[in-house]
From TrEMBL:
Protein name: 2-dehydropantoate 2-reductase
Function: Catalyzes the NADPH-dependent reduction of ketopantoate into pantoic acid.
Keyword Plastid in annotation: no
Domain Ketopantoate reductase C-terminal: 172-292
InterPro entries xref list: 6-PGluconate_DH-like_C_sf (IPR008927), 6PGD_dom2 (IPR013328), ApbA (IPR003710), Ketopantoate_reductase (IPR050838), KPA_reductase (IPR013752), KPR_N (IPR013332), NAD(P)-bd_dom_sf (IPR036291)
SUPFAM superfamilies, alphabetized: 6-phosphogluconate dehydrogenase C-terminal domain-like (SSF48179), NAD(P)-binding Rossmann-fold domains (SSF51735)
Ketopantoate reductase N-terminal domain: residues covered: 3-144
Keyword terms, alphabetized: NADP, Oxidoreductase, Pantothenate biosynthesis
Annotated EC: 1.1.1.169
Pathway the protein takes part in: Cofactor biosynthesis; (R)-pantothenate biosynthesis; (R)-pantoate from 3-methyl-2-oxobutanoate: step 2/2
One GO MF term: 2-dehydropantoate 2-reductase activity
GO cellular component, one term: cytoplasm
Organism encoding this protein: Mesobacillus boroniphilus
Higher taxonomy: Bacteria, Bacillati, Bacillota, Bacilli, Bacillales
Amino acid sequence: MKIGIIGGGSIGLLFSYYLSLRNEVSIYTRTQDQADLINEHGLHLVKGGIEQAPVLVTAAPIQEWSGNEDLTVVAVKQYQLADLITEIKVKAKGPILFLQNGYGHIKLLSELATTEVYVGSIEHGAVRENGYTVQHNGIGVTRTAVFKGEAGLLREITTNAPSGFPFFLESDFKEMLIKKLVVNSVINPLTAILKVKNGELIHNPFFFEIFKQLFQECAHVLELPNQEQYFQNLMTVCEKTANNHSSMYKDIENGRQTEIDAILGYLLELSRSKNIKAPLIHNYYQCIKGKEHEREGA
Ligand SMILES: NC(=O)C1=CN([C@@H]2O[C@H](COP(=O)(O)OP(=O)(O)OC[C@H]3O[C@@H](n4cnc5c(N)ncnc54)[C@H](OP(=O)(O)O)[C@@H]3O)[C@@H](O)[C@H]2O)C=CC1
Ligand SMILES: CC(C)(CO)C(=O)C(=O)O
């Protein structure tokens, strides 16, 4: 299968590496410089500290993406999607898979004319080391679901997944993304503001109180049907990633923009539309926006 991957960041490089083991992959980067680096060096993967055999993929700047591949995977950050969506709307001809965290981007996907639109939820941990090397630190799975159209191609990807990089096909895209949204809504802002690793949120009894209250508020706003199940999932992820720094913690530490708008921003909007009071969501949203503001030096 011919697969186009948009974005040469941590996830774009990770997916390009693994999917190229069984498919013909083209990666579309923001800059010509990164495309040149990938074409020159190939793609490198470091797994468990061990450098794997490099693979060859074709790289080109995004302007050269024509939307003709059998599948396009969009691996930019949620806040980078708004700038790209017009180009996607015009050029995308075939199925397209969006891998962003959060739920704020879902409204953009309804505007796409292409017949098959898929969404994914990534449980891997990856960090880009340089323009052509990615570290695969957290070995997990990729869950996918149909947002619009038929599941045929997702089934093919799932069946054909390379070893060590499994895909699962979920039946309900909303449930899949909301599960991840709950995890990111509680763990990400709390770890970024308290400056702790994920596990501290459940091991420190004082932080655990806030953790539970923030979960309760998210569950209330989302009107979750089975709260206990979502809470158990949140606890499991927190335990499994106890030693990790969340992506929001790292974004704040490195002075980068965060995905808070797609995460608590989405919940805040939802709470307003439902006329539900959500003081914790509001305050943690403001804390993270404040940290982003500091970065801008204003
Ligand atoms: N990293 C992880 O372990 C996980 C990430 N995710 C989710 O995956 C998504 C991607 O995250 P991640 O890969 O970490 O983010 P990165 O910031 O590492 O990568 C985003 C990439 O998109 C590129 N980009 C931005 N705009 C464009 C454009 N218009 N055309 C082409 N490329 C563009 C950026 O280019 P440039 O570098 O040149 O600016 C960057 O390389 C996020 O929503 C994240 O939440 C989910 C779970 C785990
Ligand atoms: C699951 C979790 C919380 C792992 O750190 C994550 O997705 C993130 O950091 O964005």
